[in-house]
Design a protein that fits this description.
By secondary structure, the chain is mainly alpha-helical. It is 84% helix and 0% strand. It is built from four helices and no strands.
């Protein structure tokens, strides 16, 4: 059985998420968090579900943690939570504005 091809939006999400997340990790710069916020907005615009966002986040976090030393893992997980919270913040804001409309 052949693997199911992902929609191009998910492939682009994974690529953009990986790039932005890897930029954020070393210095926790605000510019990388702005990219996280944009990723969330784009996901809403593309109709991407929260489950897909969570899956992409988890996949990329697993890649990064696997490539790190055990001493780095706690810091990486903490930063990953900060980054994912920013992605979800934009989703939450858009959902709230839609409910209020």
């Amino acid at each position: 059985m052949a693997p199911v091809a992902e929609p191009p939006e998910v492939e682009a999400l994974r690529r953009d998420y990986r790039i932005a997340f890897l930029r954020y990790l070393p210095r926790r710069k605000e510019a990388a968090l702005a990219l996280a916020y944009d990723i969330g907005r784009s996901a809403v615009a593309d109709g991407t579900s929260l489950l897909v966002l969570a899956q992409v986040h988890h996949e990329i976090l697993r890649e990064v943690v696997t490539d790190s030393s055990p001493d780095e893992a706690d810091h990486l997980i903490e930063r990953a939570g900060e980054f994912f919270a920013e992605v979800l913040a934009s989703v939450e804001m858009i959902q709230r504005s839609l409910r209020g409309a």
